[in-house]
Amino acid sequence: MEKKQTINFGAGPAKLPQSVLFQAQKELMDYNGIGISVLEMSHRSSDFNKIMNTTENLLRELLSIPDNYKVMFLQGGGSAQFSAVPLNLIGLKQDRCADYLVTGTWSSKAAKEAEKYGKVNVVHPKLERYTKIPDSSSWSLTAGASYVYYCCNETVHGVEYNFTPDTHGSVLVSDMSSNFLSRPVDVSKFGLIFAGAQKNVGCAGVTVVIVREDLIGYALKDCPIVLDYKVQADNNSLYNTPPCFSIYIMGLVLEWIKNNGGVEAMETLNMKKSSMIYDIINSSNDFYVCPVDIACRSRMNVPFRVGKKEGDEALEKKFLDGASKLGMISLKGHRSVGGIRASLYNAVTVEDTLAGPFKLHAFKLNSL
Ligand code: PLP
């Protein structure tokens, strides 16, 4: 059946590479000639074991993950990690204190959750609006903190770190849910990285956790067993039934990334795509306004207002209706901030992006 031509700018679950969908469709009823679907496969079977190993090995290869890091495939999304991180790591030091950088909705939620398990120190003055990253010279890190936490790309606000925070020796933890594998990362600088799959590396259901081995084994005694990194690491993410199909899809996406030049090539593409949109915004004489500081504008999620700085809601509605008529979907900004947000994850092509902003731009000139 002919597929409707839709350009998906959704923030997640988001567009998947089309070749991945074709492959999954081809194998849906009969995986690798074994007569059953991955959906029906025992998580303890040798076939699933191969899927897990292939997925983990691809991830290790793409990010050059050092041998002293465990890779786990867990459930509960990024939100479960907001709890799992403090439950497992805040006890690393006696004081049970953790430093948080709060630069948007997701790090704010993570910090709030961590308060249940220890002392949380937000290292910079509270931000009135999430449109920048406070200069690192203004951070007051806690000596003896168990870890320093930040969200590498704030999906709602379009704020992305283009540097790795210097923690002066403390363990660094990052939520990379919305820019995972969009660019190279030096894993050895981190104690822990986590990422939900449904934006850049697959579908909802699985969350990757990459953690340095020496940080495992410090869970608080009340930590739920499925969130305990030691239990999950010792059981190779099979303490309980894992999200088998989501792991399989992640494996296909990782293979696609590898075949398309790896994370370096993804970075080049993502810079190109996001610049195309930011260039239109910057040259629009404030018809489009992106509130985020130029130094930390996200390559993954581009938020902007239409008509004026704080957004002309009637124009924005027209804009979204027009975009929808042109086959573009999920451009509405997050309900907490309004406006427009174009998400440009790895699977969104340069052609999609070209079609998107240029059609929108023409649309602006002709129709608004
Ligand atoms: N962290 C970031 C950066 C996100 O964008 C999201 C969701 O969009 C989450 C965490 C929460 O993920 P989940 O809905 O899978 O719990």
TrEMBL record:
<comment type="similarity">
    <text>Belongs to the class-V pyridoxal-phosphate-dependent aminotransferase family. SerC subfamily.</text>
</comment>
<dbReference type="GO" id="GO:0004648">
    <property type="term" value="F:O-phospho-L-serine:2-oxoglutarate aminotransferase activity"/>
</dbReference>
<comment type="pathway">
    <text>Amino-acid biosynthesis; L-serine biosynthesis; L-serine from 3-phospho-D-glycerate: step 2/3.</text>
</comment>
<keyword id="KW-0663">Pyridoxal phosphate</keyword>
<dbReference type="InterPro" id="IPR015422">
    <property type="entry name" value="PyrdxlP-dep_Trfase_small"/>
</dbReference>
<dbReference type="InterPro" id="IPR020578">
    <property type="entry name" value="Aminotrans_V_PyrdxlP_BS"/>
</dbReference>
<keyword id="KW-0028">Amino-acid biosynthesis</keyword>
<dbReference type="GO" id="GO:0030170">
    <property type="term" value="F:pyridoxal phosphate binding"/>
</dbReference>
<keyword id="KW-0032">Aminotransferase</keyword>
<keyword id="KW-0718">Serine biosynthesis</keyword>
<protein>
    <recommendedName>
        <fullName>Phosphoserine aminotransferase</fullName>
        <ecNumber>2.6.1.52</ecNumber>
    </recommendedName>
</protein>
<dbReference type="GO" id="GO:0006564">
    <property type="term" value="P:L-serine biosynthetic process"/>
</dbReference>
<dbReference type="InterPro" id="IPR015424">
    <property type="entry name" value="PyrdxlP-dep_Trfase"/>
</dbReference>
<keyword id="KW-0808">Transferase</keyword>
<dbReference type="InterPro" id="IPR022278">
    <property type="entry name" value="Pser_aminoTfrase"/>
</dbReference>
<dbReference type="GO" id="GO:0005737">
    <property type="term" value="C:cytoplasm"/>
</dbReference>
<feature type="domain" description="Aminotransferase class V">
    <location>
        <begin position="8"/>
        <end position="352"/>
    </location>
</feature>
<dbReference type="InterPro" id="IPR015421">
    <property type="entry name" value="PyrdxlP-dep_Trfase_major"/>
</dbReference>
<dbReference type="InterPro" id="IPR000192">
    <property type="entry name" value="Aminotrans_V_dom"/>
</dbReference>
<dbReference type="Pfam" id="PF00266">
    <property type="entry name" value="Aminotran_5"/>
</dbReference>
